[in-house]
# Entry
Amino acid sequence: MDALYRENILDHYRYPRNKGHLDHPDIVYHDHNPFCGDEITLELKIRDGRVVEAAFDGRGCAISQASASMMTEEIIGKTLEELRGWTKEDILDLLGIEIGPVRLKCALLPLKALKAGVWGIEEWPHEE
Ligand code: FES
# Structure
């Protein structure tokens, strides 16, 4: 079973989903892993309190990039309220493999950016 999850992680790393930038995102949050310097920028478009588009950019190891790719797929359609309730278990469930303490920061970097983004801004400009 682990092999399937590993293959999925590699697939997301090689062919990241939602990588790039959005036109006029409502939420943009940049973060980095202080241990290695790897970075992520997360962009979200919000309508009626719900994520309608998500994208990420950055550079990092397979785990951090796969985690970002999977997370952006998963959060589209979710409400900000739901996302504010997300925990590290939600991300680890997506990855599906045992993550050791050293790689935990890699796996959770996208979640850190998400949490800071969805908690940080209460009102969004809605210019089409
Ligand atoms: Fe930098 Fe994983 S080694 S985020």
